[in-house]
Every structure is written in C-alpha cells, then in structure tokens.
C-alpha cells in the first residue's frame, strides 16, 4: 500500500479585494481539487486592503491586512488593485527578487512598460486577463500565432462603450445610455477611462507588443472616445445597414513603415463579425498572412470572468508554463 504524495504548498498574496479580488479568492477555493490533482495546495498568505475592518464577501478565515509585509513570504502575487504607481511600487521589488506576478491591470502594463518589460521577457509576468478578461487572446498571440506574419487587427475591447452604443441603437440618447451603464456597474464614475477610449488604448498597447513591436509605447496610440457620437449618428448608420463601435485598430503605417494604433468610433457594416457580439461583450479580429482571419469573442469584463483568467494564469504558473512574453 502506497501513501499519498504530499502536496506542494504555494503561498499566494493578493493585492486588492474589490469585485475581482473577491472573486479570485472564491475561485481559488472552488478549484482546490484541480490544484490538488497537479500536486499543489494554494495557501493565501495575505490580502492587502485599505481598510481591514470593512466587510467583504470572502471565504472564512481570509487574512485581510493593510500591511504589505506579508509579501516577503509569498511565492506569487496576484495584483487586482488597479491604478499604476501604487501597484508598481509594491510589485517592483517583488519582481526584482525573481518571483512571478499575475495581473489584470492594463493601465499598469500600458503606462509602466519600461519598468516591467524585462520581467515579462523573463516569463515572470502573467497577464491574460488584462485585455479581454476571461476571453483568451494574449495566450494565442504569444504562442501559436507567432508562426503567422501579423497583418492587422480590429477589436471592441470595452464593454461599457459597447453597451452604450447598443442602447443608442434602441433609441436612447447618449446621456441616458451612459447613466444606465453606470447604474448597472458597467461604467465608473467619472466614466472618462471608458467612454474617452483610454481603457481601450491601454489594452491595444498591450496587444501591440505581441503582434507588432515588443516596445510599442502607449503614447503612440491615437485616441478618440465615443462622447461625440449622437443618437442621430447612430440612426444614420442604421439606415445604411451599419453600426457604430469603438474600434481598436492596429495596422501597418504609411508605405508599410512601422505601425499605426488607433482607438476611435467607427461605422461598420452589420455583416462585420464584430457587429454580431452582444451589448457588454468584447470581440477581436486578427489577420495573419498564413493563419488568415481569426475571430475571438466573449466576456470582456466582470469579476468572475476576470478571475477565471487570473486563476488560469496561476495554474499555468504552478504547472511550469512561463508568463506572457512579448516580442523581443
């Protein structure tokens, strides 16, 4: 009779315990059996929050704290706090020690790439959830799609804008559709990051580093939001068999030199694959010389949708797959 093989303990630290962080904790608990099957036990060493006394929907016994000292004992950190400077200050010394980080923070990746790039190249950064949440696009771009010469991409990467424009198709003014999006929790208050196109620009910069240029700078993305789209614009488009979408686009520059990255509201034919998605969803059309046109669509936001990709990254990490490595 053989004895059971002891499980290897992986200590995890979580930064932030909002909607995404809470769902990460619940999903880690739900997936204990999957980790056990690969010989791993996940132990949450600490969860960094601003107010440790505030009530949260987390598993019983979750160690909430406002002191980041627990990071010193963690084998991996999952960052779900958002923003740029605060998480960078916390994560940089941790990454410098050679330990891995999982994040969904597209703003951090887009705006602080100079500080993070070497760790991504070393396979220490995992960030599948940063672009389309639980819909995998970074994984394919960083692996099998590299065999195909990239030509262009078009994408809807912000569910809030997609929801607003879809509601306008039903006859609602922009202000009314935005207010409803905020009531439903789709849009932040103020909603500038979403409706101004900056959230989409962050995500496009991340994608560009896999498709076009590993050093693609965020400030090279030209950004126009949907604030200027009127109900009349949307109705005129509908009369011509078209829909308005906030489109992230990456294509070759003039004369084939360099790359152009833009975020802007565009009119697309109703037959375009991007126009078939639902109100709050994301979609991406990737074109490569050898692979042809590929289509990705699915949930691009939401606590559990995002958590699913982050816990998926953790599974990859403990199995031994490296993080998401951009073009060199």
UniProtKB/TrEMBL annotation:
The residue ranges of the Aspartate/homoserine dehydrogenase NAD-binding domain are 16-123
| Span of domain Homoserine dehydrogenase catalytic | 136-315
Pathway annotation: Amino-acid biosynthesis; L-methionine biosynthesis via de novo pathway; L-homoserine from L-aspartate: step 3/3; Amino-acid biosynthesis; L-threonine biosynthesis; L-threonine from L-aspartate: step 3/5
Enzyme Commission code(s) on record = 1.1.1.3
SUPFAM superfamilies in the cross-refs: Glyceraldehyde-3-phosphate dehydrogenase-like, C-terminal domain, NAD(P)-binding Rossmann-fold domains
Residues the record lists as binding NADP(+): 16-21
Active site at which residues?
Answer: 203 (proton donor)
- UniProt: NADPH binding residues: 106
Under the GO molecular function aspect, what terms does this record hold?
homoserine dehydrogenase activity; NADP binding
UniProt keywords, alphabetically: Amino-acid biosynthesis, Methionine biosynthesis, NADP, Oxidoreductase, Threonine biosynthesis
What family does the entry list? Belongs to the homoserine dehydrogenase family.
- Name assigned to this protein: Homoserine dehydrogenase
> What lineage does UniProt assign to this protein's organism?
Bacteria, Thermotogati, Deinococcota, Deinococci, Deinococcales
């Amino acid at each position: 009779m053989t004895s059971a093989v002891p499980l290897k303990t992986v200590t995890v630290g979580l930064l932030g315990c909002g909607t995404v962080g809470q769902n990460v904790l619940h999903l880690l608990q739900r997936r204990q059996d999957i980790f056990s099957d690969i010989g791993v036990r996940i132990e949450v060493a600490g969860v960094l929050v601003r107010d440790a006394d505030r009530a949260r929907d987390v598993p019983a016994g979750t160690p909430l704290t406002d002191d980041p000292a627990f990071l010193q004992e963690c084998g991996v950190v999952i960052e779900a706090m958002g923003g740029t400077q605060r998480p960078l200050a916390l994560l940089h010394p941790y990454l410098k020690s050679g330990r891995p980080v999982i994040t969904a923070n597209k703003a951090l990746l887009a705006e602080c790439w100079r500080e993070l790039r070497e760790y991504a190249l070393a396979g220490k950064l995992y960030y599948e959830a940063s672009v389309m949440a639980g819909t995998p696009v970074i994984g394919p771009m960083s692996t099998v799609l590299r065999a195909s010469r990239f030509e262009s991409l078009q994408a809807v990467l912000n569910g809030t804008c997609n929801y607003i424009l879809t509601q306008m198709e039903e006859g609602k003014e922009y202000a009314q559709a935005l207010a409803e999006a905020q009531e439903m929790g789709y849009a932040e208050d103020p909603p500038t990051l979403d409706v101004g196109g900056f959230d989409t620009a962050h995500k496009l910069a991340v994608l560009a580093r896999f498709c076009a240029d590993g050093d693609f700078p965020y400030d090279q993305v030209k950004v126009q939001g949907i604030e200027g789209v009127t109900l009349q614009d949307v109705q005129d488009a509908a009369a011509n068999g078209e829909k308005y979408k906030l489109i992230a686009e990456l294509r070759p520059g003039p004369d084939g030199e360099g790359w152009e990255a833009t975020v802007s509201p565009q009119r697309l034919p109703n037959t375009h694959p991007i126009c078939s998605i639902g109100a709050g969803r994301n979609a991406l059309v990737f074109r490569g010389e050898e692979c042809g046109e590929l289509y990705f669509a699915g949930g691009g936001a939401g606590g559990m949708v995002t958590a699913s990709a982050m816990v998926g990254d953790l599974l990859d990490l403990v199995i031994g797959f490296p993080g998401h490595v951009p073009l060199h």
